[in-house]
Amino acid sequence: MSAQATSAYVPDTPASRTFRPEVSDELEAICARYPKREAALLPALRLLEREFGCVDRPGMIHVAERLGVSPAKVFGVFTFYTHYRRPTDGRYSLQVCSTLSCAMAGSERIHDRLCHALGIEGGGTTPDGRFTVKKVECLANCDMAPCLQVNEDFVDRVTEADCDRMLGEMRASDDWHPPAQTYHLPPNPKHPPVLLAHVLENGADRIEHYAARGGYQVAAEIFRSGRNPDEIIDTVFQAGLRGRGGAGFPTGQKWKFLAKNDKPRYLVVNADESEPGTFKDKLLMDRDPHLLIEGILIAAYAIKARVAYIYIRGELPFGARQLERAIREAEARGFVGPNAFGSGIDLMITVHRGAGAYICGEETGLLSSLEGERGHPKIKPPFPAVEGLFRCPTIVNNVETLCCLPSILKHGPAWFRSQGTEKSPGTKIFSVSGHVVRPGNYELPLGVPLKELIYDICGGIPNGRSLKAVIPGGSSSPFLTAAEVLATDPLIRLDFESLAAAGSMLGSGAIVVLDDTVDMADILWNVLRFYAHESCGQCTPCREGTGWIAKLAGRMAQGTAQVADIDKLDEVAWGMVGRTICVLADAAAMPARSVVRKFRGEFEAKLARGQGA
Amino acid sequence: MATYKVNGKVAEAPAGDKLLPHLIDGGTHVPHYCWHRGLTPAGNCRMCLVKVSNSRKLEVACMYPVSEGLEVTTEGPDVDAGRQAVLEYMLINHPLDCPVCDKAGECDLQDNTFKYRNGHSRFDENKVIRHTKDLGPNVKIWGNRCISCTRCVRFTEEITGTGELSIVNRGDHSVADVHPDVPLDNPMSLNVVDICPVGALIDKNFLYQARVWFSKKVPSVCTGCSRGCNITGTVLHNQVKRLQPRENHDVNGFWMCDAGRLDHEWLSGTDRLRVTKGDAGDLARRLVAVRDRNGAGSVAMLISTAATVEELHLAAKLAQRVQAEVYFLGKVRGARWVSPSGFAIETDKTPNTRGALRVFELDALPPASGVVDAIRAGRIKAVLSINGIHDADWPEGLVDLAPRLELAAALDVCENDWTKVCGSVLPSAAWAEKSGTFVNRDGRLQRIQPIVAATGTAQPDVVWLQQMLIELGERRTAISAEGVLREALRGIDYRQIGQTGVVLDAPSAPAGVGK
Amino acid sequence: MESMESTYRSPETPRGAGVGLRLRSWLARLSIRVYLPSIAAGLAKTMEWMVRPKATLEYPEVQRVSRKGYRGEHRLKKDDQGRPNCVACFMCATACPAECIEIVAMPAPWPDRDKVPVSFRIDMLKCIYCGMCEEACPCDAIELTPTYTRVATSRDEKVYDLVKLLSN
Amino acid sequence: MTPWLWLAAKIGFAFAYLVGAVPVLIMMERRISAFIQGRQGPNRVGPMGSLQPLADIIKFLTKEFVVPLRADRWLFVLSPLLVFVPPMLGFAVVPFGNQYGDELLQIANLDIGVLFSMSVLSLGVYGITLGGWASNNKYSLLGSLRASAQLISYELSLGLTILLAVMIAGTVDPVRIVQWQIEHGWNLFGGGSLWRLPLGLMGGLLMFICALAENNRLPFDLAECEAELVGGYHTEYSSMSFAMFFMGEYIAMVVMSGLITTLYLGGWHFPGITDPTDHSWVGALLSIGVFTAKVYVLLFTYVWVRWTLPRFKYNQLMDLGWKVFLPIALFNLAAMAIVGVILEG
């Protein structure tokens, strides 16, 4: 211990931090984009990180002074988010994704390899302050598992050999970056994509490309013609578009709930894609940001919002840069900004980066975070549509939802309804990862049989293995067993109703396929560890319960639990359901209960073995 | 107003109001941690679960709005099961170190656990360890005990506006903390200890001083400034161990300042006067003798504004009898401090300036410096001081002029330069040792009562002054402080004053008496 | 004699008994009247006790070995580093029905605990040796030893302080 | 040796014999009571605790003699002596051995020795009565009254049983009673005649029981019944005066045992051990030894009975004395007289 303590990396902490004048101006510019100065807290911490390499104590005090908040609040916010660089982080922060798909692809081995090569323990920093290795939660790159993030850059499909090579290169250079991420889209012959139609095309992220393929026409038409916003709402309502973020709430309905008062209205784009297994929004934002911006324009017009914020998760810096550039491009063309499309409407779009908190994907948590607070969800009612961001009526929509808008308005609700099912119309991007031959994003009409997706479209289970379980909608959805997936009656279709009837949910459409090699206890531990790590800590049942069931699952995975602990896990999980402000506790409890119930025999056998040994 | 039902009984409250305060006011027991009447509700502890007719699941009463026809159930197996579950979660990472926790005995978590849990835990895992450290000069945190209710955080944000506290980390590592370089050091910081529903935040001054179940709690009024915050004193072995605010919305709300809270240490200090020098009757005779020798106005009385209304009344009688000139001794310190929530700390650090104005029927109190001038002028030949302030603003030169006096006498609580030169010194009971009333700056008459017994031969000034008056034939027998109050303010007795006081007249706050 | 009769009721002669039985019955009644057999039995019993081994131990040459659970004088236990186990929680003082325990606490100088006693006094003259303190102790710090022989020559000596209790 | 010297020697021996018995008895009483109760008794002072009585005496001697206020001082001082002296006198006629040369081992060879001893022994009650009265204490007075009533009650039965022995032996001279028993057999067993056997047994038993009552021994120690009367007649006595009561009681026990031995247990003789014709110093010592042994067996029985039987109630005591023992003793005597006349003329 003592040897390690002496060799541990201790950074020098300066007595005070002060922004350079130009950074100071930048901060003021950022503050100007929010109605309250303290809302610029997260971007301000990013500035600290950029300017001084990390967020440290004097830096926090400086930011507190600049934003007029207390240092403790800054400290509280900073400790809430995991993605900011700590003073103890090394020059290169190697963040290994440890969540489901990556874990199944062997991220644990990558992590251990890195630690071993650097001679440090997980979470530690080399004594020279050069390298830090840590495990992080889902990096939204599940089809490229296992995934590694070096500072802010992604490295896909890392092998142990890659690790050694990269470490060598990083040792040699002070400013090493991995090669830019390449994108792929698996072939999907059955259904021509709508949203994903152009993502792989060269230059698809440029406004020229987007405009050339007919982009911004819908928005321009709406803005210039001065259409009645309620008409647009009605159109969306008739199209039956349901939220693509997870809950599946009808978007038009949500818009109609907006409080009728004279407060400013806000449109917030939920780009905090952090549900394990989901990686659709990342692709859209990285490759086709203008599609989103056009969607934002339409939605903002419809709900009479004059300010839109894109809350993008901190782990997606490239996406944030793409969006910012796209906004600048759109501003240059007069689509965004004062007097958009010459309509007299001033529309400001701001990209707001999160910093590593799954709970900020929950809409009220996201709003708290956007206000510069810890990402604590708020009690509903009042719903954000009545009292949301800065206590004003606010609409929070998912990236994919907004991306659907241009085509809906272009082709009309009937066209949209012609795809998918009666109650779940339209197409949806399904992010398939895990044990399938061709993982990736598939845009399919809702109502596609799950079986068909796995076996026909994705090419089935590789290596001649058989199916064991499927997570149909991100790790917060209850698991489906192979029998349930393969059954023809009822046939499980990928739409909101069919999955709800099967006792699970569509969620964000993140499908993780597990073959028969996996140990369900390991999977459960992995999932529950994620929720324990991501619980905001506000409500007692969630704060304590997620940790408890994760520890229980941990002992089960290690085989040191008792058979009676299976029931205990089930009961403890049940105690969390419906007792909290947001649904994170339910999101942890429901899959946990489904796993221990559906795979009880496997758990019992394992634990009985463990006790015997 | 909406009509709703609580456990089948009809109740009324404004629609849209949160349920919990109305339930509590209606006498229903609803356990709660994060909710505090003086703070905005947060709804995060999930303890105040009740069943409402509008919802399938249990709802938290602190955030649920009252609506017409709502039916609320606050007890029964469902509700108890919900609370039990929440308590179980709350306890799994709680260290359960009640034996060494100062909160034990007055801890909400302990009480509710006793009520709802069976003493059994299903938790076999390792507990999360959080920090134990000083948050500031007066407050220490035991992070393991913290239940993240955020009462303290909201207090520093909403009441003091200083925001030194925040919840840091997330999940089960959440704990209240300060920024490492900015300690919790505001004039009201110790209130967070009172509102902490568990033993996470502890008053370092009270740390390990007493187990509360051995101690006694006595209501009184703070004498630290003219605000007159209502307080409760905790006493053990005849020593005041701590002072806490007592709820009074007309004076201090739920709070008090740190200075007032810590203003009890001198009560058992070594400089307290414990031995009588001289004798009350003799003193009275000598005062009269001085008057007889030198004529009316040759005697001065220097009365502190820490004297109770009763003492002032008797002092006025004495002054009349010996034809004394009366001057007043005060204590004015610092600048007025007002929190964003409106809680004020006054500069007049004596509790009864207004009472003195009223009893002596003056518009302004002659300051103590007048005595010095009068002695210098040769007018005053005897000075009797009546002082209950342990560090009063004595007028400069008074002590040096003592040799020019025929008689220097003091009724005082602590030894000071003046009592050292006095021929007669009668030790007085301090505020915590006597009964009496004060009029605060807003004209509210409030009552103190003995928290501890006086040491040595110290007596309340009411006793000393009555002995003097008896000697002079002004009175036949000594009566209680309450009797003196009835005499001083006709028609008011202690029962009427009660625990929260009565307003005497419209306020015009005096600034206190300078040197 | 009335009272005697009431205590020792003569056995009734069964109806229709034979001569032998009647005679025996009569003798029995007589013997009770005369007390002599009872007295003889009593004398035999006392004689038996006289020759038995004695219950008394020759204290102090022979010391009684206290049975398990004997409640003698208190002691405060120490851990392997010689520090008192006591954390000054006052549970013993709270449980004590004789109110003979007086503790003054202070913050602990060691990191592994919060609170230690700076003074721990038991007035052994007030103590009723009920063992409730031992029952109440959450740290297994106080226990009642089998020691029962400690004498003192003044009242003050019987007020045990921390040092004494730790060395007891 | 001159007769006077002999007399002085015998008196000296008797005095030492009686006074010396007191510490022995104290010791017996305490050790036996302890043994019966499963205890050890005093065993610290001297070997086996043998010096404990000495310690007691030193204690008594060094304690303060307190005369209660308004007590009759003279009688208060006198009464312990009255308890102490008469039993000693009674020993004068008891033959405590055979004879050495011509000299009988008896202080005074009175023809009517038995009657003398009876009369002298009953004087002891004066001491008790006076002591109780002189104490000026109601408990003492009650105790002493009880003692006198008890003495009178049992004196009758005692006298009748003594008479029985006298009738069997046909003489009132103790020496000759012993002689008769040597020749015919112990009076306890009827003096060698089968028909007298039940009478003798009954007489001997009655005499012993009455002796218990006479000596205020349990179960008849109503006079000093602690539960009701504090200490009875000697409540107010302390130091040596209390010790005198104590000694008087023990000496009375010894004398009474000597009398019973003489009248019913064959005196100093035991067949096969003593030879009545052996007047050498060896024979004399042997006979004294036998006498002592018999006396101490009786004394042991006193103590044994004390720690076996509980105290009677006063009414039971009186019932027993008057309604049981007196008729039995009378019947015994009458049977002896009538049957004796019929069978032996």
Structure commentary:
The complex is a heterotetramer of chains A (613), B (515), C (168) and D (345). Chain B has 515 residues and is of the alpha+beta class. Helix content of chain B is 24%, strand content 19%. Chain B contains 15 helices and 23 strands. In chain B, helix 8 crosses helix 14 (481-488). By secondary structure, chain C is α+β, with helices and mostly antiparallel strands. Chain C has 6 helices and 5 strands; from the N terminus they run H-H-H-E-H-E-E-H-E-E-H. In chain D, strands 1-2 form a two-stranded antiparallel sheet. Chain D is 67% helix and 1% strand. Chain D has helices at residues 3-36, 52-62, 73-90, 113-121, 124-134, 138-169, 174-184, 197-214, 226-229, 239-264, 281-306, 314-344; strands spanning 99-100, 103-104. In chain D, strand 1 and strand 2 (103-104) form a beta hairpin. In chain D, helix 2 packs across helix 10. Chains in contact: A-B, B-C, C-D. At the A-B interface, helix 4, helix 5, helix 22, helix 23 and helix 24 of A face helix 2, helix 4 and strand 8 of B.
Quick rundown:
The complex is a heterotetramer of chains A (613), B (515), C (168) and D (345). Chain A has 613 residues and is α/β, with parallel strands linked by helices.
Comma- or semicolon-separated keywords:
heterotetramer, C: about 170 residues, Alpha-Beta Plaits, 2 domains, 6 helices, 5 strands, about 30% helix, elongated, D: about 350 residues, two-stranded antiparallel sheet, about 0% strand, globular
Low-confidence stretches of chain C: 1-8
Strand ordering within the main sheet of chain B: 2-1-5-3-4
Q: How are strands sequenced across the largest beta sheet of chain C?
A: 2-3-5
| Low-confidence residue ranges of chain B | none
State the helix count of chain B. Answer: 15
Beta-strand share of residues of chain B: 15-25%
CATH topology of the largest domain in chain C: Alpha-Beta Plaits
Chain pair with largest interface: A-B, 49 and 48 residues
Averaged pLDDT of chain C, please? 84
CATH architecture verdict of the domain at 280-503 in chain B:
3-Layer(aba) Sandwich
Average pLDDT of chain B? 92
Cα-based radius of gyration of chain B, to the nearest Å: 27 Å
Name the structural class of chain B: alpha+beta
**Distance from first to last alpha carbon of chain C:** 60 Å
SSE series of chain C: HHHEHEEHEEH
